[in-house]
Structures are given as structure tokens and as C-alpha cells.
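Protocol step 4 of 6: structure prediction from sequence.
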Amino acid sequence: MSLLLLEKTKSRAAEEAPRLKTEERSTQLSEIVPVQKVEPVEFAKHYPSVVLAEWIRSCPQVSPEQTCGEMAELFRRRHELECVAVVKTTGEPAGIVMRHRFFKLIGSLYGMPLFADKPVTKLMDSKAMIAETDLSPQELIDRAMSRDEERIYDAVMMTSGGAFTGVLTVSDMLQLSRLLRRELAGRQMSTVRGAERMLRDIRGSVDRLAGEASVSRTGSLEIAELAEHGQQDLTQMLGLFRLWTETADRQASSVDELLARVSDTVGIAKIIAQLADQCNLLAINAQIEAARAGSHGLGFSVVAQEVRQLADQTKSQASQIHEQLSGMAASAAAAAAHVREGKEGADRGMLQVHKTEDTFNRLWTRSSENAKGTEHLAAASREASVMSEQIAAQVAKLAAQMNESPEEKY
């Protein structure tokens, strides 16, 4: 009977090794599984975030005092069991008994007689991997896959707050790894689709920018043209102001000359008036002398009377000439003042025209520079549009490659 049990145990252990090898090959094959062709939102619906607590499977628990014979009987009765957890009375895991390793040890020639009555702690793995349920799935898989070769196919004991809750088998971790890869693929696809949308928005913005740059360039050219015309008009206006200033200078010179001539004429009129006064005095003296001569001086008296009347008329006319010349001088002086004011206004106008001309020059320069800048901006926008199209094509190619990748099979 013992020999029959030994043979069955060896045959079961031999059966476990190829099954684990098959799972290992299936893990390698799972690397080329395709991603399902669905939109990012569908990925999110189809592959929700992985939670370890949902994957923990129940496992029989035995106390450390359980005998190896009772453990062998449990494994014989329940062929589906891969492992049994050894748990302390406090709920903390003490170790794990893996089916294939247990039968490998107890199935030796004297294994059952030696260990049948011994506690299971003699054959359990006290260094089994223990992990909390709040551990991230990827970290759990990484830690499990980094175990030594002897324990890499052992189940992982899961705890919550230090208390044993269940186990995760290698098959479970392979399933978790596949789901994590598919979840990552879904997120990558979502990122790619989002990048495609962003690129489309960028292309639209670049195209709008190119259109605005073209409109701005047209406006800048129009402003430059208007500024050039305004500069030409200002140049003509400046020429007119210069002509006005020169005319005002000539008018002022003529008025000054006129005032000088009037002043000279006024002086001559004063001399004539003085001569008339002297002639009048001489005529009066001649009349007195003629009166003294009596009848012999009658003719001389008549002449003296005529001379006196002529002197009076000359003095009167000289006085009128003086008044007219004074009025003419006042009018000329007023005209000269107006001419000077006009000249000062023309000078200020010339200064303002010069300033405006400088402003138009700067405006023309800036508008020309702006036109060149907008032209460069339009060229850069066209280049950016071409580059965004190329990037969009690459992203679309990447998305197509991701969609065409092999699909995981379970």
C-alpha cells in the first residue's frame, strides 16, 4: 500500500512539472497578444483598473500542529488544490505547503514513515512570499517574478492588516499581468487618440494663425503704402511751407524797405513844412517892408501876399502828406507784424511737418518690418502645418500598429 502511494505521488509530481512548463510557455506567448480594436473610452469600460482584492482565491488553512499525514490525506481528497496555507491561531500566516514540493519530499522511500506523524511545519515553506492586499498589482508581480527559481512557481500568501486572506497562484499572476498589459495598451491607445485630437487642434490653430498672418501682412503692406503716400504728401506740404516762409521773408523785407522809404519821405515832408514856415515869415516881413514903402511897395506887397498864401498851402499839403505817410507807415508796420506772425506760424508748421515726417518715416519702417515679420510668421506657420501633418501621420501609423498588434487569448 505504501509503495502504491509512493508511485502515485511520484506520478502526480511528474504531472505538475509539465503543467508549470506549459504555463511558462503560455506566458511567453502572451507577449504577442493583440490589443482589441476599440476606442479609448471602450478600453476604459472593458478593462477597469485591476484590484488585487478581487483576485484573491480561497485556500484551505491548517494550524501549525497539523500532521503531514493529515496534509497528504487532504491533498488526496482534493485533487484541485495547489497549496495549503499554514496559519497561526492569531491569523498570521506561518508558511505554505505547495502540493508538488510536499509530495516530492514525502514521496521519497522513507518519506511517509518519517513525516506522517510530524507537524506540517517540518515540510512547509516558512519563507513563502507574503504580500498585503493593498500592494499594487505590478509590484506584486515584479516581486513574485524576482523570487529564486525554487519558489518562482509557488503561490503568494495574501494578508490584510497582517491577517491571512487567501492566495494568488502563478496562473492568477499571469492573468493579472495580461490584464495590466491590456490596461496599459488601452491607456496608450487613449493617449495616442488624444494626441491625434491635439494635433488636429494644433493644425487648426496653425492654419488660423497662417490666415491671420496673411491678413496682418496685407494690412501692414497697406499701412506702409499709405505711410509712403502720406510721406510724399508731407514732402509737398513741406515744400509749400518753405515757399510760404520764403515769401514771408521777402514780404517782411519789402515792408521794412517801405517803412524806411516812408520814414525818409516823412523827413522830407517835415523839411518842406519847415521851408513853408520860413517862406511865410519872409512873406510877412516883405509885407511889412512894402507897407513901409507906401505906394512904391504895393507891387512887392502883392507878391509877398501870394508867397505867403503859397507857403500856407505848402504847409497844409505837407501836413496832409505827413499824416498820410504816418498812416501808411502804421499800416505797413501792422502788415509787417502780420507777416512776421505768419512767418512764425509757418516756421512752427514746418517744425510740426518735420516731426510728422519723422513719425511717418518710423511708421513706414515699422510697417515694412511688420510686413516682413508677418511674412516670416506665415512661412513658419506653413512649415508648422506641414510638420504637424507629418506628426499626425506618424501618430496615426502608431495607432494603426497598436490596433494591429496580436490579441491576447485566454
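Step 5 (inspection) to follow. Residues 1-47 have pLDDT under 50 and may be disordered.
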